[in-house]
TrEMBL record:
Gene3D superfamilies listed in its UniProt record: Glutaredoxin
Cited CDD domains: TRX_family (cd02947)
Cross-referenced Pfam families: Thioredoxin (PF00085)
Domain Thioredoxin: residue ranges: 2-76
Protein name, entry field: Thioredoxin domain-containing protein
SUPFAM superfamilies linked to this entry: Thioredoxin-like (SSF52833)
Signal peptide start-end: none
Top-level taxon in the UniProt lineage: Eukaryota
Length: 81
């Protein structure tokens, strides 16, 4: 999850993201990347809007969800783990 503390949609998605991370903790690793602290990672993955969720599998991007879309995020996770 690429996020920023000042971004309202990021704050809205924090609880669902953490719930998914706990529920799927044995199948995947969930990370939060603060866009203000890790600008090199933001550039590497071409993050242009917040929140952005990337699903990486063995270093390859398998999916991306941009925005506060709980259903889309859940679907992409379930389809790839």
């Amino acid at each position: 999850m690429f996020w920023a503390s000042w971004n309202e949609p990021c704050r809205v998605m924090m609880r669902p993201f953490r719930a998914m991370a706990v529920a799927k903790r044995r199948a995947a690793i969930f990370c939060q990347v603060d866009v203000d602290k890790f600008k090199d990672i933001v550039e590497r993955y071409r993050v242009e809007a917040l929140p952005t969720f990337l699903l990486l599998k063995q270093g390859v991007e398998k999916g991306r969800v941009v925005g506060a879309k709980v259903g889309d995020l859940s679907n992409i996770i379930m389809a790839n783990i």
